[in-house]
Each structure stands twice: as structure tokens, then as C-alpha cells.
Write a structure and sequence with these properties.
This protein has 125 residues and is mostly helical. The protein has two domains: 55 residues, no CATH class; 53 residues, no CATH class. The chain contains five helices and four strands; from the N terminus they run H-E-E-E-H-E-H-H-H. It has a two-stranded parallel ribbon. Helix 3 crosses helix 4. The longest helix is centred in the middle third of the chain and has 19 residues.
Length: 125
């Protein structure tokens, strides 16, 4: 559904999908050989390159690691500058994602998806 949505909304094709060879993406192993599941066969049919990192080695996917680091730094900053309970860290993470999807960068997901200019004027502390 995600690949179809990307094609429909921003008129672009997915070229590469990176995963950690988890069963949900790569397939299930048995004693004799690897048995790819439908997802990997689907990628092959669509001409999408499946790029795999080693399980348990997130440092191999630098883009995701940098993104996660940025997210966590923003969450820590939000929490340290407020008097909100620690149990609300998940809400801080959601807010951080919301903001990052609307700020300047090479590609602004909100603008690609909606075709409208993003704004943060509706947010307040």
C-alpha cells in the first residue's frame, strides 16, 4: 500500500528499500534453505532493489541512525525545557516527527505528500 501511495501522491517510484533482514521483510529460514516471503517477491517484480543490513547492526544504515539521533536530541530538548512528566516522552516523539516532516530540508515529506507549503505557525509551547 505504501509503494502505491507514493506513486499516486508524489508521482515517484520507489527505487530502494533498506531493511535489516527481519522476517517481516526478508523471509523465513528453514533448515534446508531460505524461503523468501511474498514481500521480497513483490519487490523483485516491481524492480525495487532490496538493500539489507545485518540484523542487530543499526550503524550500517547511517541515514536512519542520523534521523533517530536527531529525533532523540529534539525529544530530550523538549523534555528538559518543560515541566511535562517523563511518561509523555512518546507524545514528545510524535511532536518531533510532526515538526521534522514540515521543516526545511532537501525533501519535505509534508509538501511532497500534500502539494501545499508547510507551516509551523499553528504550534505553540
Amino acid at each position: 500500500m505504501y509503494i502505491t501511495e507514493i506513486k499516486r501522491q508524489i508521482d515517484r517510484n520507489v527505487k530502494i528499500i533498506t531493511s535489516n533482514k527481519g522476517d517481516e521483510y526478508y523471509g523465513i529460514y528453514d533448515k534446508s534453505e531460505q524461503n523468501p516471503i511474498l514481500f521480497s517477491k513483490f519487490l523483485e517484480k516491481q524492480g525495487i532493489y532490496a538493500q539489507y543490513t545485518m540484523p542487530g547492526m543499526p550503524q550500517q544504515n547511517i541515514v536512519v541512525e542520523k534521523h533517530n539521533h536527531t529525533l532523540m536530541e529534539m525529544v530530550r530538548s523538549m523534555k528538559s525545557n518543560s515541566k511535562v512528566l517523563n511518561c509523555l516522552w512518546e507524545e514528545a516523539l510524535k511532536t518531533t516527527l510532526y515538526i521534522l516532516n514540515r521543516v526545511l530540508g532537501k525533501v519535505i515529506p509534508f509538501e511532497l505528500e500534500t502539494g501545499t507549503k508547510s507551516s509551523l505557525r499553528h504550534l505553540y509551547i
